[in-house]
Design brief:
The chain is of the alpha/beta class. The chain has helices at residues 16-28, 47-54, 67-79, 90-98, 104-111, 124-128, 130-141, 167-178, 212-223, 251-261, 304-309, 327-337, 378-396, and strands spanning 5-10, 32-37, 82-88, 116-120, 145-146, 150-153, 159-163, 187-192, 197-200, 203-205, 227-232, 244-247, 267-270, 277-279, 298-300, 316-323, 342-347, 358-365, 368-377. The two termini are 29 Å apart. The structure holds flavin mononucleotide. Flavin mononucleotide binds at residues 11-15, 38, 40-41, 89-92, 121-122, 126.
């Protein structure tokens, strides 16, 4: 952490007092801490306290009188290695989510390319409020780290979720942030989403895959330090931050892109629900309604997963098997016939698999005991799955 430039943003909440201790801990670890306070934060703690503890001037105003200071504001945004907002008020979280820049701290957040982490602190009803949760989800989508809140006694004499993490906990998270990550520099190629196989210019065959599991894995891998390329069929999902996304439509296009990108890939994860068959012919014009029946002739699409597993220098190859029945049996068959290193089986159905935000996974590998990840949010499962994959790779050498 030595010599890391950390901007500590303090907003208007009771927990602002904890940030004095955080400042002390960071300075003790030889970080260069620059504190920016909102106007309302100064109702709770004085700039003088933070100036003394950080050993640096505290920034409180957007429009400083002296020119040198004004320029420094921009320099602050540029030089930061990490921006931590602690406490992050409900108001500030909303401003960040909507990209407002009406004071120094929100302007710096908008102007910086440094990673941002927020430690929310508020009354439990404010935290549970749908709009706060929506804002948090939007910040998460943009790759902003959300640290906490914790449950416990709140300043408003209530008990619940909304307490800011302790200064020592935030300090540990900052420390972890700067230490090397489990998949640092590893090249990972992931496929996600459905494919669309055109029947004519306006119709196609597809499936119910939402892409959520693949996107969650892409994000978890990126957060674990990997260089991630995501080849995605059509979805409505936002591009995970710092992930190279290549959009494709059909199985054929997905196959071409995978073969193009596979060189230097250490891990290939196939979560896409690729169509097994496509119309043998794509009509040039819209097919007209004619007789009582219409017979479609279908032909096989390329088997992307098997093609990767057949490569002479194949990456660690992981398939996903979405099944409605005989989940384990079908997954084992796929693991063996396609010569995969690992397969992740999941049942699709009510509140599971396709379209759902939650899932449960069964991980099967060659010569290793099976691992069950029980019902949880796909984002959580993705993190656990990536840890398992990273450990496998490490032991494989
Ligand atoms: C005593 C007191 C305690 C407060 N504590 C919090 C809090 O913990 N979290 C929060 O989001 N807002 C809290 N507020 C409300 C914020 O201070 C208010 O929304 C303010 O506009 C936030 O400004 P800022 O985000 O620009 O710092 C508190 C207000 C008062 C009067």
């Amino acid at each position: 952490m030595q010599n890391k430039n950390i901007i500590l943003g303090i907003t208007g909440g009771i927990a602002a007092y904890k940030s004095a201790e955080l400042t002390r801990l960071l300075r003790h670890a030889d970080c260069n801490v620059r504190v920016i306070m909102t106007q309302n934060a100064q109702e709770f703690i004085t700039p003088l306290t933070l100036q003394t503890l950080s050993g640096n001037q505290v920034y409180t105003k957007m429009f400083a009188q002296d020119l040198e200071l004004n320029i420094k504001h921009i320099a602050l945004a540029r030089s930061a290695d990490l921006v931590v907002i602690a406490p992050a008020s409900a108001n500030f979280i909303a401003k960040l989510a909507y990209g407002l820049a009406d004071d120094l701290l929100s302007t710096v957040c908008l102007a910086t390319t440094a990673p941002i982490a927020i430690a929310p602190a508020m009354n439990k009803i404010m935290w549970q409020n749908t709009i706060t949760q929506k804002n948090i989800a939007s910040l998460q989508d943009r790759g902003i780290n959300i640290w906490g809140p914790a449950a416990g006694d709140l300043a408003c004499n209530e008990i619940g979720l909304g307490r800011m993490l302790e200064a020592t906990e935030i300090f540990s998270l900052i420390k972890n942030f700067f230490t090397s990550k489990i998949l640092q520099g590893v090249n990972i190629l992931i496929t996600a989403g459905p494919t669309q196989e055109a029947l004519d210019p306006v119709r196609f065959l597809t499936n119910k895959s939402s892409g959520k599991m693949g996107y969650a894995i892409a994000r978890a891998a990126e957060q674990a330090g990997a260089n991630v390329t995501l080849i995605s069929g059509p979805t409505s999902l936002l591009n995970p931050p710092n992930v190279k996304r290549i959009g494709v439509i059909s199985a054929e296009e997905m196959y071409s892109q995978v073969i193009k990108q596979i060189k230097n890939t250490a891990i290939f994860i196939s979560t896409a629900a690729v169509a097994d068959y496509r119309p043998a012919k794509t009509a040039k014009q819209k097919i007209k309604k004619t007789g009582e029946e219409l017979t479609l002739e279908l032909q096989k699409t390329p088997d992307i997963l098997a093609a990767v597993a057949r490569l002479p220098k194949k990456p660690f190859t992981i398939g996903f098997a979405a099944e409605t029945e005989n989940v384990k049996k079908n997954a084992i068959k796929k693991l063996q016939t396609k010569n995969l290193d690992m397969i992740v089986a999941n049942k699709v159905g009510k509140n599971l698999g396709f379209e759902s935000d939650n899932n449960e996974l069964l991980i099967l590998s060659k010569n290793a005991p099976e691992i069950k990840l029980s019902y949880a949010a796909k984002t959580q499962l993705a993190k656990e799955f990536i840890t398992i994959v990273a450990n496998k790779i490490k032991h494989k050498g």
